[in-house]
Design goal:
This is LacI family transcriptional regulator. This protein is of the alpha/beta class. Helices cover 44% and strands 16% of the residues.
Length: 338
């Protein structure tokens, strides 16, 4: 059986249907390439798993002394969601005492995704931290193919092969629902997170598990998925009240969505917690400033940021070391909303 040849600029050019000069220009970030040619070359690089020879030669001997924190979300999400700022603080704390620079990268559209792909393919960072992972995001697969040290905050599925750190999302959601059951609530709805994210799936699973464990029905009419935004929480709460006007409690998969739910309940004249109890998830600063203050599942967000950084530093120092899957515990903080 023959040895599989490492892809070269020539094979990339052939796959993309362009000349080798064009491939070189794309690799070097030259503007003298059409968008169509650049897209074709980038697709070929990804498909073939091509790593430039100069990069391959330098892997053992040199480093960039920088890592990328990649957040595939908009500036509005970054600014309005306390989760991200807490992760960034944790990452910064994890880098104290090192010489590494942190590059914060938002990926908001396909152009920025292509630009990031070129940047990472050229090995311009020593490793990548990836936050807010969606199931169909091709970036983790690319990073694995490139052999670039990578750690995820979250995971794509329970079978995630890359190093990752996440909270006990199932257990935290279970604890939230058990708390509501203990308070005598018996028609408990949920505002779920995005179902293309494991965090959304896992918190929904925790809600279902706790209800079924208590002998309650976990019907689909009590589930309204949203997008981790305040407006999403408002809209989901409105839909739940239309479908199940007799509901007496809501578990929201984030504090931001819970704040939206509180606003909608107030608009519709429902008293919290007298008529409807509300529990969120994160125990962010938002939970302490809602009216009434929000009961919430505390997850150690800064510790997530610090832990993914520590794991990445280990991977950079010892490439190919054992894979890590770290699950951090959660706890329930009870306030007036429940």
């Amino acid at each position: 059986m023959g040895v599989t040849q490492r892809p070269t600029i020539k094979t990339v050019a052939a796959r993309a249907g362009v000349g080798r000069t064009t491939v070189s220009r794309v690799l070097n970030g030259s503007p003298l390439v059409s968008d169509e040619a650049r897209a074709a070359v980038q697709a070929a690089i990804t498909e073939l798993g091509y790593v430039p020879n100069s990069v391959a030669r330098s892997l053992v001997t040199s480093r960039t002394d920088s890592i990328a924190l990649v957040i595939p979300e908009s500036e509005s999400r970054l600014g309005s969601e306390p989760y991200f700022s807490a992760v960034i603080r944790g990452v910064s704390n994890g880098l104290v005492g090192t010489q590494l620079q942190l590059l914060l990268t938002l990926v908001r559209d396909q152009r920025e995704k292509d630009q990031l792909t070129r940047f990472l393919t050229a090995r311009r960072v020593d490793g990548v931290l990836l936050v807010s992972v969606h199931r169909d995001d091709p970036l983790p697969d690319l990073l694995e193919k490139l052999g670039l040290p990578t750690v995820l905050a979250g995971r794509r599925s329970p079978d995630e092969p890359l190093n990752h750190v996440h909270s006990d999302n199932v257990g935290g959601a279970c604890e939230a629902v058990r708390h509501l059951l203990e308070r005598g609530r018996n028609r408990i709805a949920t505002i779920a997170g995005p179902l293309d994210m494991d965090v959304g799936d896992s918190r929904l699973l925790g809600w279902r598990d706790a209800l079924r464990e208590a002998g309650h029905r976990a019907g689909d009419e009590l589930v309204a998925p949203a997008d981790f935004t305040e407006q999403g929480g408002r809209t989901a709460m409105r839909a739940l009240l239309e479908r199940s006007p007799r509901l007496d409690a809501v578990f929201a998969a984030s504090d931001v969505m819970a704040a939206g739910a509180l606003a909608e309940l107030r608009r519709q004249g429902r008293r919290v917690p007298d008529d409807v109890a509300v529990v969120g998830f994160d125990d962010s600063i938002i939970a302490r400033h809602t009216d009434p203050p929000l009961t919430s599942v505390r997850q150690p967000i800064e510790k997530i940021g610090r832990t993914i950084t520590e794991l990445l530093l280990q991977e950079i120092e010892k490439p190919g070391s054992a894979r890590h899957n770290v699950v951090l515990p959660t706890s329930l903080v009870v306030r007036d909303s429940s």
